[in-house]
Amino acid sequence: MTAARNPVTTVGVQRTPRHLYYFNGAGPWPGVTTVTDVLDKPALTKWHRTQVAEAAIRHAERLIVDRDAGDVDAAVAYLLNLRNEGTEGRDRGTRIHAALESVLRREPYALDPRDEPAVAGARAWLNTRGVRPIEVEAFLINETAGYGGTCDLIAEIDGETWLLDWKTSKTVAWPSGQVYDEMRLQLAAYAHAEFSAKVGDPERYPIPAITRFGIVPVTDGGTKLYEAAVTDEDWTTFRACLWIHGWRSKHLARAPRRCAMTADFLLPPLVDRSDVAAQAKRTGVAS
């Protein structure tokens, strides 16, 4: 286990396949999306349930055979094994992200025919909005808090600096237009990173001052920008998630050097209510 945690390189940034981050040999630190996995995600839960229900309909005959044979466990196991069918969405997301990275870097790329409508729509959106990329697929690190992340795009649009996150899911916001909570927390975490890092480069690079935030779903039906109202409360909530993640993984107890965070850093101090309590006692009003 110890060898697996050691960075391959001690120079610059490294992201492992499990999305653990190292910088100049320090780490590992969890990735932003891993940290927000501690949250309940109603939209994602609904999607998972829908996937199971649709799989049950597609394979109803097979499930009925197992049920009629009295082997309910086999039917359940078969249905659970169908989870791998859901990897297509993740694979598609990876492909589209890679294609858009190449587009923004003006590099050649091979495009899966299945992704052509989505990527064409994204390119049209980039051109229409006059997006000027500043950072593309940037590795962002916060050594003090102990996390890393990969930001899809920092760009200038109409004279303002946007921090943008591509999404290939069909929905990214509630009917009100407010983007999902975990997406705002991810943006808050990226914005509060201490520096940008590069592979094989020991330097810490400054991150442009972000003025606006957005989630950009890229689908076959087109590309649209949803502005995200990222607040200080979102940053506080992300730090709470980071604390919970560390507690769950025993991250602080096993290897304190991985995360220098303290409770005072993660969460604002409790309000001193001694005066309020004393006043309540004098007046007989509960505090």
List keywords for this structure.
single chain; 287 residues; Lambda Exonuclease, Chain A; 8-stranded mixed beta sheet; 11 strands; disordered C terminus
Q: What's this model, at a glance?
A:
This protein is of the alpha+beta class and 287 residues long. It has twelve helices and eleven strands. Helix 4 (60-68) runs antiparallel to helix 5, helix 6 (87-105) packs across helix 7 and helix 8 crosses helix 9 (232-249).
Walkthrough of the structure:
- It is a single chain.
- The protein has 287 residues and is α+β, with helices and mostly antiparallel strands.
- The protein has a single domain, classed as Lambda Exonuclease, Chain A (Alpha-Beta Complex).
- The protein has helices spanning 2-5, 32-36, 42-58, 60-68, 72-81, 87-105, 116-129, 181-191, 232-249, 251-254, 263-266, 274-283, and strands at 13-15, 20-23, 26-30, 132-142, 147-157, 160-167, 195-198, 201-205, 212-219, 222-223, 226-227.
- The strands form two sheets. Strands 4, 5, 6, 7, 8, 9, 10 and 11 form an eight-stranded mixed β-sheet that branches.
- Strand 9 and strand 10 form a beta hairpin.
- The model is unreliable at 255-260 and 268-287 (pLDDT under 50).
